[in-house]
Write a structure and sequence with these properties.
Number of domains: 3
Number of helices: 11
Low-confidence stretches: 55-60
CATH superfamily of the largest domain: Response regulator
Structural class: alpha/beta
Largest sheet: 6 strands, parallel
CATH architecture of the largest domain: 3-Layer(aba) Sandwich
Mean pLDDT: 89
Distance between the termini: 61 Å
Number of strands: 12
Strand order of the largest sheet: 2-1-3-4-5-11
Strand content: 15-25%
Shape: globular
Length: about 325
């Protein structure tokens, strides 16, 4: 039995393996153990019992099942990007449900050197350059992208608009009286930054470039950016009552630093809001107010559309946009 084999490979129980592969709960095992279980499942080409019975009944074999490749266009390592790591896991769960085999998992730096022509289809995670997309579509016409904004490429895409997410976050801050709002995150070709700027302009608030910090959206660069902002605030060079972070990864590190500076900032607390709603956002202190991106639904729809295209169910380009919503927790307070 495959579940027993996976359990033996990673040193855990069959019931834990089953809960992880069926996505019954995000807390049924540690992230490290979940990663090991999914890696073992990919290694042995695990398929659910239902698929195995179907194969025996119809005298098919695994090679007849759809095979797809996943391209991680923006990142070099899943463990450094919690949002894409969780989105990737949602994809694995959905592909398993649909009895689809993963051929290749290709990271950004190796994408241009990889042959994807033998896969039935390709899923691209994250914003993709024209050069990379041309390379992929020259090898495979069954392609779908999952990203935050419409790219107007000649492929199917599932999106959740980053600009709208940023506008929702800024609107919440404005509704609580905040006007001096710092931004930490990517500023180059980034819709979340555009949303931040547009909301300031629409509310007749001039852009203060001292409050804008360009980062690669990692915790390390978030710390440097925040400490620079705080130093300027304490020296009276600038002021802000809230920080809008481009992603939860950034915001979580800032909340950790704010806890250490709690006494210093007691009279003038700083609110923090971000985008993604990763699992860790519910375990911060205080709990992180963030914009929820519906990862599971996006993964589900991407797999459905790709399989439909592979089987010639549709030929026109399809774009599906999911709405985002705010998760109001305790990291944002009214301005005082």
């Amino acid at each position: 039995m495959s579940l027993k084999k996976i359990a033996a490979m990673v040193g855990t129980s069959v019931s834990t393996v089953s809960r992880v592969l069926n996505n019954t709960s995000s807390t049924c095992a540690s992230k490290e153990l979940q990663d090991k279980i999914w890696a073992a499942a990919r290694k042995i080409g695990y398929q659910p019992n239902e698929a195995a019975r179907s194969l025996r009944q119809t005298k098919q074999n695994l090679s007849k099942l759809p095979h797809i490749s996943i391209v991680l266009a923006r990142i070099n390592a899943l463990e450094k990007e919690p949002f894409f790591s969780e989105l990737f896991r949602n994809l694995e769960v959905e592909l398993l449900k649909q009895k689809v085999t993963i051929d290749h998992i290709v990271y950004a730096e190796e994408s241009l050197n990889h042959d994807l022509s033998h896969s039935d289809g390709v899923i691209i995670l994250g914003r993709c350059s024209h050069k990379l997309l041309e390379h992929i579509t020259s090898q495979n016409r069954n392609v779908i992208g999952i990203w935050r904004n419409p790219m107007n490429f000649d492929v199917d895409e599932v999106i959740c608009d980053g600009k709208k997410a940023a506008e929702l976050a800024m609107h919440h801050l404005f509704s609580l009286g905040h006007q001096q709002i710092a931004y930490i995150g990517d500023c180059s070709f980034e819709s979340r930054y555009v949303g931040y700027c547009d909301m300031l302009i629409r509310n007749n608030i001039p852009l203060d470039y001292k409050l804008i910090k360009q980062t690669n959206q990692t915790k390390e660069e978030a710390e440097t950016a925040f400490l620079e902002l705080l130093e300027d605030k304490l020296q009276g060079k600038t002021d802000f009552s809230a920080i809008f972070c481009a992603n939860d990864n950034t915001a979580i590190r800032i909340l950790e630093l704010l806890q250490k500076k709690k006494t210093l900032l007691k009279k003038h607390p700083i609110s923090v809001i971000s985008i993604d709603d990763i699992e860790e956002a519910q375990n911060t202190k205080p709990y992180l107010t963030t914009i929820h991106i519906p990862r599971y639904e996006m993964a589900h729809m991407a797999v459905y559309l790709l399989l439909d295209r592979i089987t010639k169910g549709h030929e026109e380009i399809v774009r599906i946009e999911f709405p985002c919503r705010i998760m109001i927790r305790s990291s944002v307070a009214a301005y005082r």
